[in-house]
Amino acid sequence: MTAPAEDGRDRLAERFERHRGRLRAVAHRMLGSSAEAEDAVQETWLRLHRTGDDGIENLAAWLTTVLSRVCLDMLRSRAARHEEPARDVLFPDGPGGGDPEDEVLLVDSVGRALLVVLDRLGPAERVAFVLHDLFAVPFEEIAPVVGRTAATTKKLASRARRKVHGEPVVPAADLARQRDVVDAFLAAARGGDIDGLLAVLAPDVVRRADPAALPPGVPAEVRGADAVVRETAVLGRRARHAQPALLDGAVGAVIAPRGRLLAALVPTIEHDRITAYEVIADPSRLRALDVAVLDPVGAGAPP
Predict the structure, then answer these.
(1) Interior CA angle at 26 toward 24 and 29, to 5°?
(2) What is the domain partition of the chain in residue ranges?
(3) Which residue has the higher pLDDT, 95 or 158?
(4) Which residues form the RNA polymerase sigma-70 region domain (predicted)?
(5) Do domains 4-77+100-165 and 172-292 have the same CATH topology?
(6) Mean pLDDT of 77-91
(7) Distance CA 102, CA 89 (A)
(8) Is 231 exposed, middle or buried, given 0-12, 13-18 or 19+ CB atoms closer than 10 A?
(9) What single DSSP character describes residue 272?
(10) How distant, in Å, are the alpha carbons of 190, 191, 196, 199 from that of 184?
(11) Burial tier of 2 (Cβ tally within 10 Å: 0-12, 13-18, 19+)
């Protein structure tokens, strides 16, 4: 016969498993890493296992609060990352070309640009934004997690929201046309569509790139549509990691495998064609870019 204590543990584990999917989703967006998300969920389970569920009226809310505190601690304790310069961005023959399946699902569901922007938020900003804007958790429940009042937490999320969405520097109609051009360029690059590339590139287009984006011997500047198209056919191997984004208020693209920013493509668009584009891969230049998402995110968030 099963001991009562063991029955209690099994029941507790069953209750926890009903919430695991949502907890993983919250942790993914807070941490941007499936491995770290799993660690946070496991730590949440251990804390529930130690305390039991006696006296917990709303287990979902309790688990979300505990998980959020775990994630906040992890975000705060991350050592300052001195990332290696992005190499081989245009010609990716080295490691890092493939995403683990769970990372692909995360990136596809959240969006590369949003993950890049979330990485640029402060820990408390990120927690407040993710909980409220992406999971509709009330500010009154978020406030104890970040150690602020509900009113201050609301301001924290509002500040994060402004960073996420950015401030376009062109009218909405121009922004939409820029988006169409960048979408067409990326689609053609992904498919190796030479005619599609020639249609979106100006005949005298100029490609410039940081040395960190290129293998040795490749020039930092290439001129002419034919030469750029030949090179872009190789870029297509990494184009699947690219997503349109708002860069310094205009439409460009981020190249972000697993949601980690390796490079940014900054185009100059005239008469619905790309007359020039620059591939920024130098870490200091990437940090200086104002990156934001193009499309609205979240549900039920206040304007």
Answers:
(1) 105
(2) 4-77+100-165, 172-292
(3) 158
(4) 16-79
(5) no
(6) 50
(7) 23
(8) middle
(9) T
(10) 10, 11, 7, 9
(11) exposed
The CATH code belonging to domain 172-292 is 3.10.450.50
Q: Enter the tokens of residue 6.
A: 């063991």
Query: Between 3.10.20.310, 3.30.70.1230, 1.20.140.160, 3.40.50.620, what CATH number should domain 4-77+100-165 receive?
Result: 1.20.140.160
Cβ-contact 126, 75 below 8 angstroms = yes
Quote the tokens at residue 183: 């979408």
Residue found under tokens 């130690």: 50
Q: What is the pLDDT of residues 206-221, one digit of tens each?
A: 999 998 888 777 889 9
Q: Of residues 38 and 302, which shows the higher confidence score?
A: 38
Q: Is the pLDDT of residue 197 over 90?
A: yes
Which structure tokens are listed for 221? 């500047």
Q: What does the mean pLDDT of the chain come to?
A: 84
Q: Quick one: pLDDT at residue 181?
A: 96
Structure tokens that stand for 239 in this block = 């184009």
pLDDT of residue 222: 93
Q: How much is the pLDDT for 3?
A: 40
